[in-house]
């Protein structure tokens, strides 16, 4: 007699559990746990990384991320307003910027700003400034479309009500539209902050003094010195200290805003229209 659909689903589920348990048992009895412990969980190596991994690596990672995010958000706001401008040239310039920097790897931009610009113009760029500019101009290309979508998501009636009170278009945008748009786009902006935190690891390609190390660079140096993967694991945990709270914050903000979705190129799979 054929099984019912519900019973068949239950059997399949138990088979999957059985396979999972079998895989765990095979790994448990065949893995070289002594080698794994000495490679990934060497407590002496981990202790040797503190407190510098926090006071230097984690601190600089937060600083690089904050500088890049702040600069990128300012540029993104300008780009978003240009995208919504009635002046066609502004829309073209903004669209070209967004397409160009969305299409380039962040590493190339960091190398161009941190190494290429000083060589080309014979100037010196402080590492903090170079990373702020490089991370910011890349992040701006993504945040601009999020900001544009947030501005367009503000109910048209809000704008009409402000105009009926005698507000100028500029004042309406600054005092009415943009504040409401930011409430809508806080969740995706938080996600962008998480991505930027991870992109800050590319700073290691610019070289730095010990006081300028971020988490990845600090972990890499400790890895070369100890010949153990424990520093990589410690650096990864430190990244999670930043990103996991931000992930919870993003979900909290999404609940606060009613889970309202906005249409962006990332969510629709479409490029920037001109």
Written account of the structure:
Mean pLDDT is 86; it is low at 263-274. α4 (52-83) packs across α11 (230-256), α8 packs antiparallel against α9 and α10 (215-226) packs antiparallel against α11 (230-256). The chain has helices at residues 5-30, 33-40, 43-48, 52-83, 88-102, 106-121, 127-153, 156-164, 169-199, 215-226, 230-256, 265-268. Helices cover 78% and strands 0% of the residues. The protein has one domain (43-258): MetI-like fold (Orthogonal Bundle). The protein is flat. By secondary structure, it is mainly alpha-helical. It contains twelve helices and no strands.
Task: Briefly summarize what is shown.
Helices cover 78% and strands 0% of the residues.
According to CATH, what is the topology? MetI-like fold
Ranges where pLDDT stays below 50 over 5 or more residues in a row are 263-274
CATH superfamily: MetI-like
N-end to C-end Cα span: 62 Å
Inertia-based shape: flat
Largest sheet: number of strands, sense, barrel closure: none
User: What class would the helix/strand composition place it in?
Assistant: mainly alpha
What is the level-2 CATH architecture name?
Orthogonal Bundle
**Which percent bin holds the helix content?**
over 70%
Classified by CATH, the class is: Mainly Alpha
How many helix segments? 12
Round the mean pLDDT to the nearest integer and report it: 86
